[in-house]
Design brief:
The longest helix has about 35 residues. It is elongated, with a radius of gyration of 32 Å. The protein is built from 32 helices and 18 strands. Helix 30 links the parallel strand 16 and strand 17. The chain starts with 20 loop residues before the first helix and ends with a strand. The N terminus is likely disordered. By secondary structure, the protein is α/β, with parallel strands linked by helices. The strands form 2 sheets. Strands 1-2-11-3-10-9-4-8-6-7-5 form an 11-stranded mixed β-sheet, sandwiched between helices. It has a 7-stranded mixed β-sheet with strand order 14-15-13-16-17-12-18, with helices on both faces.
């Protein structure tokens, strides 16, 4: 018999078994795990011995029978065309998981009864059959080795072939060790599932009453809660579910279930409990605790995490949706640590669950037990479970480094590390710019735009016990990190990798809003769609709620932003239907935290409120109010050198066309203006040759230009980032003025706002003062900052 096949160890839970005709007939289910090479050689030797004992004449008969069964299995595994018939047909899916060793024994027992009939004919048939199988084995081996070499060249690139061989062998040994060593007893598994948030969230089905509640127009009821670090939280819990006794009804695919998921309740902050008791893997706790000679198993969550991290992790660990709009460059690393810890913990638990069930199936086969009645539901429709959306490549570098520090021990390995830093690391041009930098930028700007600022990327990461493999194929990866632009360019051709996302993290949402918010919405529209291909998925191992199309109700959304965005809040409320509940942080802006207090120039600031009935009509009402009430005042010669700050590019184009039509003397500076023309416009505006200058928010966000010569500033709409307001107002000081305007004290600031700008207004003037301005009978409010 030919040598055992060397399957590719790509971490996608493949189990090819030995190479006989029966296993080839069922080869459509490609996600069965293959064990180590020693086990394959032992099986080959045992099967050879059995062939010698049996009469070769009768080996030809089972071959004919298996050919018919293979044709049936080929029809069964067509994706989503005959799922219902396949799951109704009893043990068809389970037959794929039976061992080849048992099949050979069954064949031998059937053949012994007819052993004495025609030996000479059987000898000729068996010899020809053996020769044919040996040739097939050699051809399949060559094909697989060529496929492995091609994948290694594509994925690993710079590594040598010998190093790749060693890496795969180490991964194989680790997976096999996990299968044999991490197999708890059934009692331990039941005890863990009764308290572990992962099991409570993903290992149970959803009742019909809860499903009706989540799909209703008003699925949630709100309550408020206050914690020390997070502050005021608005808790969204599923509306009261009818808990009347109802008989379990059969779901679309599969049998009835006795245990249903529990709808979310008010969160309780636990204190004095070791982090391991939260359900966190001990390996992650050990790597999280960097102190020498410390016992991570007894360290409480408060000792290992900061107060902010502890509260966010307590919510995330219960798989609640979180919207936190108070992220900044000072606490960004703390928040990144929390969601990386939660994502790794989720992936490792999912992986251990699959390995445990694979080990149990192997044990059943070795003991000769039937697996017809055994059903393990532990997978999704595809392998990727976690999606992290980040704006820039430097953000991806920080995320990967955080994942590596939490997962890998001292002897851990990062595959494709050099290639990753070559493509995602800081470019040489950026290093030269640092040395030649003349102007200094704010701290928040340096924190965002230091490093590689490319906004088009995507990378897959597969997780093992002591290995983090970068550049894994999207259907062989556990964690996907992508920018909205990088993901959208791929979604045009393939979106199946998004159909089983269980944890979705959106990091630095405010930067994504500055890029293109439509890309983020496009990703949400392609989540949990029916896949077009099977992607080597064993449908007998897929959870029933995933097959029934309820994955959106199990997905957890974690959204982090530095500012409160209405668009992000709408995405959080409309696109998230998590039965565990949702938490939105809404803190009051105190007067001491307002940005209007940072204006150092003695400057009168007039806030004009214009009426508008709806948010959709506010853009038109703002334009008409500005062109009829505000803009005519700036035709006067005394109102020259006026900068008009416009957050929306659509408003910028509309106002530019209006100024062209009315023949105003103005310049324009937007994110698409070439550098040469931008320098020319800035110079003419400083000299007074351009009386008006249209200035977009995205240009200021990406460049943070020091605009000189501003004598009057008009905010067409309040800035998205509240710190932009004092930055622009402070440019009116004498140091940046044209010499003819220095010291005259005639600078002014004009702001337009409506009731739908409440969040932006509160961030600038404070929540209490904003409420007074929005409800006051007076449409104009005047602030005077600075003083002599």
């Amino acid at each position: 018999m030919g040598r055992g096949r060397r399957g590719s160890k790509r971490g996608n839970f493949k189990n090819h078994g030995s190479r006989n005709s029966s296993s080839r007939g069922r080869g459509n289910f490609k996600n069965k795990r293959k064990f180590n090479r020693d086990g394959d050689r032992k099986k080959d030797a045992e099967s050879d011995n059995k062939r010698q004992k049996l009469q070769p004449e009768k080996e030809s008969e089972p071959l004919v029978e298996e050919s018919s069964s293979s044709s049936e299995s080929e029809e069964e595994v067509k994706p989503y065309t005959q799922l219902l018939s396949m799951f109704k047909s009893g043990n068809r899916a389970q037959q794929v998981l039976t061992s080849d060793e048992e099949e050979s024994e069954d064949v031998g027992s059937e053949d012994k009864s007819e052993e004495a009939d025609s030996r000479s004919e059987g000898d000729s048939v068996s010899e020809s059959g053996d020769e044919g199988m040996d040739e097939d084995d050699i051809e399949d081996e060559d094909d697989e080795e060529e496929d492995d070499e091609e994948e290694e060249r594509d994925l690993l690139g710079v590594q040598e072939a010998d190093e790749v061989e060693e890496d795969h062998e180490e991964l194989d040994e680790e997976e096999h060790e996990d299968e044999t060593e991490e197999e708890p007893s059934g009692d331990e598994e039941e005890m863990g599932s009764s308290t572990d948030p992962y099991h409570l969230h993903y290992e149970r089905e959803m009742s019909e009453s809860l499903l009706e509640t989540l799909t209703s127009p008003k699925p949630y009821q709100t309550q408020e809660l206050n914690w020390k670090a997070l502050g005021r939280m608005v808790i969204h819990l599923p509306a009261k579910v009818d808990r009347k006794m109802e008989k379990p009804k059969p779901v679309l695919l599969g049998e009835t279930t006795e245990k249903y998921v529990i709808p979310g309740t008010l969160p309780i902050l636990k204190t004095g409990i070791p982090l391991v008791d939260y359900g966190v893997k001990s390996q992650l706790c050990t790597n999280l605790d960097k102190r020498p000679l410390s016992d991570s198993s007894t360290q409480t969550a408060e000792e290992l995490l900061s107060p902010l991290q502890h509260e966010i992790f307590s919510l995330a660990n219960e798989y609640r949706d979180i919207y936190y709009p108070e992220m900044n460059h000072l606490n960004s690393d703390e928040i990144r640590t929390v969601y990386c810890l939660h994502s790794l913990n989720h992936v490792m638990k999912s992986r251990d669950k699959v390995l445990l069930h694979n080990a149990k199936l192997k044990k059943y086969k070795e003991n000769g037990q039937s697996t017809d009645d055994v059903e393990f539901r532990d997978q999704g429709l595809v392998r990727p479970r976690v999606l992290i959306i980040a704006p820039l490549r430097n953000s991806a570098v920080k995320i990967v480094e955080k994942l590596a520090s939490l997962l890998l021990p001292v002897k851990g390995q990062i595959i494709n590390k050099d290639r990753f830093y070559k493509e995602f690391g800081e470019e040489k041009d950026e290093e030269d710019k640092k040395d030649n930098k003349k102007s200094y930028k704010p701290e928040d700007y340096e924190a965002v735009f230091t490093g590689n600022t490319d906004d088009s990327f995507r990378i897959g990461i597969s997780v093992a016990k002591r290995t983090l493999k970068l550049y894994a194929g999207f259907y062989k990866a556990d964690i996907l990190i992508a920018s909205p632009l990088g993901a959208r360019t791929l979604l045009a051709d393939d979106f199946d990798f998004l159909c089983s996302i269980e944890v979705l993290v959106i990091d630095q949402t405010d930067i994504l809003y500055m890029q293109n918010w439509d890309h983020v919405l496009h990703i949400f529209q392609h989540l949990h769609l029916q896949p077009r291909e099977q992607h080597d998925t064993d449908l007998g191992r897929v959870r029933l709620w995933a097959l029934n199309g309820y994955s959106a109700h199990y997905r957890q959304n974690l959204i982090f932003s530095s500012v409160a965005l209405p668009e992000a809040a709408a995405l959080f409320s409309r696109r998230g239907t998590n039965f565990a509940g949702k938490v939105r942080v809404e803190n009051v802006v105190l007067p001491s935290a307002t940005t209007v207090c940072r204006v150092l120039v003695q400057l009168p600031q007039a806030f004009h409120r214009f009426p508008t009935p709806t948010a959709a009509q506010s853009a038109d009402d703002r334009f008409h109010f500005f062109t009829k009430k505000i803009l005519p005042q700036y035709r006067d010669l005394l109102m020259s050198n006026t900068l008009i700050y416009i957050p929306s590019y659509y408003d910028y184009v509309r106002l530019r066309n209006h100024l062209h039509k009315e023949e105003y003397n103005f310049g324009q500076a937007c994110e698409y203006t070439p550098d040469g023309k931008l320098a020319q416009v800035r110079n003419r505006f400083f000299l007074g040759k351009k009386r008006l200058l249209l200035y977009t928010e995205r240009l200021h966000f990406y460049r943070r230009l020091t605009m000189k010569g501003i004598h009057h500033v008009v905010f067409y709409q309040l800035p998205t980032f509240p710190n932009f307001y004092p930055e622009l107002c402070n440019l009116l000081q004498d140091a940046f003025q044209n010499p003819k305007y220095r010291g005259d004290g005639s600078q002014t600031c004009t702001v337009l706002y409506s009731t739908y700008d409440a969040q932006r207004l509160a961030a600038i003037v404070g929540s209490q003062r904003a409420a007074e301005m929005l409800t006051s009978d007076r449409p104009v409010h005047l602030f005077v900052s600075g003083g002599s």
